[in-house]
Amino acid sequence: MSKKQKKAKRSQEIQLHLQLFSIHGLIRGENLELGRDADTGGQTKYVVELTRALGKLHRVKQVDLFTRLVDDKRVSSDYKREIEPLNDKARIIRIRCGGKRYIRKELLWPHLSEYVDNVVRFNKKENIRPDLLHGHYADAGFVAQNLSKLLGIPFVFTGHSLGRSKKQSLASKGMTEKQMVEMFNINERIKAEEDVLQTAAHVIVSTNHEIINQYKLYENCNKAEFTVIAPGIDIEQFYPFYYDHDEKFKKPEPYIQAREKMNREFARFFYNKDKPLILTICRPDRRKNIQGLVTAFGENKELQAIANLAIFAGIRKDIDNLDENEKEVLTEMLLLMDKYDLYGEMALPKKHNPTTEVPELFRMAADLQGVFVNSALNEPFGITLIEAASAGVPIVAPDDGGPQDIIKNCKNGVLVDTTDSKALGDAIKSILIDQEKWRDYSNNGVNGVRKHYSWTAHAESFLDEVDSVIGDYKKITGVHGVSEAPGWRFAELDKMLITDIDDTLVGDDESLRELLKVIEAHRGKIGFGVATGRSLDLVHEILKEKHIPTPDVIIASVGTEIYYGPNLENLSLDSGWRSHISYQWKPERIKKVLSDFDFLKPQGRDGERDFKISYLMEPDDDHIAMIHQRLTEEKLRYQLIYSHEAYVDILPQRASKGRAIQYMGNKWNIPPEKILVSGDSGNDYEMLYGKRLAIVVGNHSPEIESLRGNRRVYFAKGNYAAGILEGIRFYEFMDI
Fold first, then answer.
1. What CATH superfamily is the domain 241-448?
2. Could you give the CA distance from residue 443 to residue 449 in angstroms, rounded to a whole number?
3. Mind giving me the DSSP string for 611-653?
4. Concatenated DSSP letters for 258-282?
């Protein structure tokens, strides 16, 4: 059976559930606010259209586009709607993270682990088991990668723009690395991109130029599996201009209104609005080189005589309220307009509707036998170029990147060095003055887009490329089947048994063996976990020494680290928990403050972790009080745990075994009354106290005697694992 036949057979047998992620910006199904800000650009339109197109394919059962839920009076209430249908099989799902306010993408990085957790909860609540994840941009790449690890399913990645390229560009403008980190979180972004490159099943790019000129800057570029798929456009929305001239064609009312509005707008700017139109649509970003286009027009008197220039540079109310980059670009355009006296020949409208007015602008330009110009310094792809081509407008574009492929496929315009204003002006004029060339470019563009750049073609190509990785993912990753991934394992669990290790789980080998048999007999519906002061390495040692199977969850280093199975060689660190407890954690400052106390002796190799500082100290209540007083005076946030009358652990304020278990239960939707915990000492106190069912083993330390009498805490007579078995029987937690 050929590869094509195998794909055809798969498409008949399997319908896929796909989940796409595009976290930042403002995303909705209609009237996208393209150009509103730097985060609401072409990517937002791309992901919405891709989701719609995938939802129309037979091979797709369901496609979800995940973005961020925003409940902010400064933006539309559309963005606080949790679920928005796009078609019968496609929808936008909005998930909370980082509060309710609309914030720029660089400020989202500390909250992405929260986003991962909330997606896990959503999928479990809806009983969803997706087949493939697709992350768009570095932030969503991070989310997709972490979900992939938790769920044991493959993910693919589309970068849209890359951090290393941005870093080079910012450095060339004189920005220091410290400024880049403070303003753009640039190093965190680049690290996420490096990680994604070596773990994604496919990295989807629009052109080979992206690989050669952008991804080659990355250390892990050679580890990535790149797939080139040209993006698509909605050819019904960007229909050819000559449809309007057909008496049988009924022009949609929104486009009629859009044309009337744009005609009124042009009447405000142009002395003669019937001249051919030179059109550009882009964000007011210096890299778009709009100033270069204004200069090319201003320096060429012949061009001014035969054409008007219309620049749609984002959406604005007041230039003074824009960020510095956009403010500078727009100010320079106005100064150039004044310098070359382009009044009556140049339009700079303040807003436009991307859904109805942009397609109509292209058709208006075509009706006037105009040209669409992308004057960017470099262009990875150029989606507006194929939108213009689809409507029948010839194009002028940079001789760099994506436009090279577009012109090669469509033969619908001219490539030029956009930094050369004379060459740019001459290229535009060469099309405007040659009617035969204009007609050829116009017809070629319409036909070429339908052949190479429709959304249906793009979506089909996408599925063809990812089809094989879905079934083969376990071979690629070494995961022994999705049922063993944490996400699906926890979805099957009704209850959890979580126990301390030293002097609780271990201490008596005979009772331990009996307990392990009971745990194994109930592993189908009851999960097993350990919560310990040990580091992960020391947990490994004791589990192997005592022949204890890999727990479903390991809470290590006094609750500062959470790991999930399926085995010791393939553990998943819960990055959400790390992110949560890192708030206001200042370990170096704490160590410096406590170095004055000679009664504190730093512990050995197990005492120093990212979120745990450990000391040895002889029993003394006054010493504990002194530590509290000193750290409080220094306004440091911390958690102090004293156990076995010997060990002092300083943790982040949000960390402890009990809080780690609470977090884990919330994440996997396991209520506290379905969690049974057991322990023996002070560092188990918070774990044992609360709504969970708890067992204190017979050989416990005096420091937790105060829990006696609590109706949810059972004090066993048996020691070690025998005490745990006794507590299981008391609560009737398992059938033994």
1. Glycogen Phosphorylase B; (3.40.50.2000)
2. 10
3. TEEEEE--S-HHHHHHHHHHHHHTT---EEEEETTTEEEEE-T
4. HHHHHHHHHHHH-S-TTS-EEEEEE
Q: Three-state SS for 686?
A: helix
The architecture (CATH level 2) of 14-228 comes to 3-Layer(aba) Sandwich (3.40)
- Residue found under tokens 């669990």: 493
Sheet containing 277-282, strands listed edge to edge, beginning at the edge strand earlier in sequence:
346-347, 308-313, 277-282, 371-373, 395-398, 413-416
In sequence order, what are the residues at sequence separation of 6 or more whose Cβ sits closer than 8 angstroms to the Cβ of residue 146? 113, 116, 575
Q: Which two tokens stand for residue 474?
A: 């376990």
Name the strand (E) or helix (H) holding 572: strand 572-573
Reported as a pLDDT band with limits 50, 70 and 90, residue 106 is very high
Higher-confidence position of 285 and 29: 29
What tokens were used for 725? 């078995």
**Model confidence pLDDT, tens digit, residues 488-505:** 888 888 899 999 999 999
Rg (CA), the chain: 31
Query: What is the number of alpha carbons within 13 Å of residue 720 lying toward its C-beta?
Result: 14
483 against 357, higher pLDDT: 357
Q: What are the tens digits of pLDDT across the range 131-163?
A: 999 999 999 999 999 999 888 899 999 999 999
Give Dmax over CA atoms of the chain in angstroms.
99
Within 8 A by CB and 6+ apart from 87, the residues are 52, 55, 56
Contacts of 23 (CB under 8 A, 6+ apart): 66, 67, 68, 97, 105, 108, 112, 115, 137, 139, 140, 143
Would you kindly state where each structural domain of the chain is located, as residue ranges? 14-228, 241-448, 479-582+654-736, 584-653
The H-or-E segment that residue 685 falls in is helix 685-688
Report the DSSP pairing between strands 132-136 and 155-158. parallel
